[in-house]
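Researcher: Go.
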Amino acid sequence: MFAAKKKGYAGKTVREPIKPVKLNQCDVDILNYLKDEMREVISIHEKLSKYSDQEISLNLSWLEKKNFIKKVITHNPFGMNTISYTLDYMGKDFFGK
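Model: Structure:
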């Protein structure tokens, strides 16, 4: 599998191989928790209480950046927003869905 093309020697395009992504245990635990359904941020933090809140937040943003999960923001009529996460295409590929 190859990533986007870039200019190589003499202006010819060169394809770079896609580097495999290494997931740590916290990443895998987050993906397993999101495997079946969309979850709110608060429930993710409560479920994975063995990790620090900072570590969970950093891993959520990293997984979102790498397209493993996607953020869903729901607005309710009282002016509050609910932030939830669900699997994105890389997360579904991780589980073979």
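Model: The chain has one domain: 21-95.
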